[in-house]
């Protein structure tokens, strides 16, 4: 098991990430992943996936009434297909190159969304596309939230958070099952993820008073900001 210093540093990163995700609907993995990779890479990705699953579970438990289950019915099967495609892409393409390409696409999508207020309808075709892209990018780069977040950006805040939470929870559990089946999910990873749960709970609780201030329009700006940061992070990984 890692030393106590790891849990102080990783716990703070997870707490901040959980606070961001509690308010906006995504962000815990984006905030915490770079920290965990530096301080204890042997616990990635399983340790963070366990913590991410607990954060998504908290969101679904409190906001399940607002989940767009019909939309998830289209997006989640596509995510499974995209995850297989992402694993194949990793085998034939450098992850940093793919990350840079995804980062550019994310930033272009944000720019298009802001320029002229471009709006993409939530339909079976767009849900399948977003789910597939999310599966590819999530498997290859550990950042899979932006495609779904961009699709739901104009929805009410409660619907965005709840739907993304359910999407992340089911998708993360599937990822853990795949890792376990491949022998890549270790006991220390699971233990560290469970030990980080109090930090997840604290971040989730701290975010609840703040998120009540976001309405439909109020959530879009921070949501796009977090998505843009994910694109910049992917580009930064490629350049370093």
TrEMBL record:
Transmembrane segments: 32-51, 72-91, 97-115, 164-183, 189-207
InterPro entries: TM_pro_TauE-like (IPR002781), TSUP (IPR052017)
Coiled-coil positions: none
Primary location class: membrane
Keywords recorded for this protein, A-Z: Cell membrane, Membrane, Transmembrane, Transmembrane helix, Transport
Record membrane topology: Multi-pass membrane protein
Cellular location(s): Cell membrane
Family: Belongs to the 4-toluene sulfonate uptake permease (TSUP) (TC 2.A.102) family.
The protein's name in its UniProt record: Probable membrane transporter protein
């Amino acid at each position: 098991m890692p030393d106590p210093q790891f849990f102080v540093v990783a716990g703070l990163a997870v707490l901040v990430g959980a606070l961001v995700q509690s308010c906006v609907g995504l962000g815990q993995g984006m905030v915490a992943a770079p920290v965990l990779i530096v301080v204890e890479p042997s616990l990635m990705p399983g340790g963070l996936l366990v913590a991410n699953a607990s954060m998504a579970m908290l969101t679904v438990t409190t906001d399940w009434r607002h989940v767009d289950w019909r939309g998830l019915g289209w997006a989640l099967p596509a995510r499974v297909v995209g995850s297989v495609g992402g694993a194949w892409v990793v085998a034939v393409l450098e992850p940093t190159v793919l990350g840079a390409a995804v980062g550019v696409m994310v930033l272009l999508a944000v720019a298009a969304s802001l320029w002229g207020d471009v709006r993409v309808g939530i339909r079976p075709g767009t849900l399948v596309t977003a789910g597939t892209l999310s599966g590819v990018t999530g498997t290859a780069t550990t950042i899979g939230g932006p495609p779904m977040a961009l699709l739901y950006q104009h929805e009410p805040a409660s619907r965005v958070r709840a739907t993304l939470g359910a999407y992340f929870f089911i998708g993360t559990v599937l990822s853990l099952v795949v890792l376990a089946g491949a022998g890549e999910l270790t006991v220390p990873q699971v233990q560290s993820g469970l030990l980080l749960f109090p930090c997840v709970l604290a971040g989730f609780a701290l975010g609840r008073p703040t998120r009540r201030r976001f309405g439909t329009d109020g959530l879009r700006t921070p949501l796009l900001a977090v998505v843009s940061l994910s694109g910049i992070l992917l580009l930064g990984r490629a350049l370093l």
